Amino acid sequence: MKINILKIFAFASFFISGIGCAQKSDTKSAEKSSGATVVVDQDSAAIAEAKKKAAAEEKAKLPKPYDATENAEAKISELVKKAKAENKNIILQAGGNWCIWCLRFNNFVQTTPELKEIVDANYLYYHLNYSPENKNEKVFAKYDNPGAKFGYPVFVVLDQNGKMIHTQDSAVLEEGKGYSKEKVKAFFEKWAPKS
After folding, report:
1. 72-190 CATH pick, 2.40.10.220, 3.40.30.10, 3.30.750.24, 3.90.1150.10
2. Model's pTM, two decimal places?
3. Can you give the pLDDT at residue 41?
4. Segments in the chain forming alpha helices (H)
């Protein structure tokens, strides 16, 4: 009885952890006709460790645009003044240097000329830090705590007066282990200032 309960608990834990992760699982499971039994590849731990190592190496190579020491409230106020003068909107990319998807998005935009051109022509772009060192709680509260709703990165679009006009979940912009150029381009074009 105890063994069956442990097997069921192990299966439930395995199943639940798979749901919470956005990455595809490389483990295999099987169910025997006599009860719930989970069979996991012996190599799954090695595969998981190799993926973790590859992600750490990728993260180490990517630019780190977030500044935990910066006064985000003052910086955004400065950007609003500049946005009015330049007739641009503002994109706040909320996240941190700890977040590989945040770093991937930043790198994707900076290294894709078509996207960078749209951003530079229409927006002032700010990396709003969220990290253990500086959670910027007051600033995040002002924008309805989007990270709590969507995770990171999450994008807050402000008009030239500093009014929040859109919050964008980054998950819908993803494609494989990166981002879709078409979806990101459509997002940037949709929230650009109207002429």
Report:
1. 3.40.30.10
2. 0.77
3. 58
4. 2-20, 44-61, 72-86, 100-111, 113-122, 137-142, 146-150, 181-190
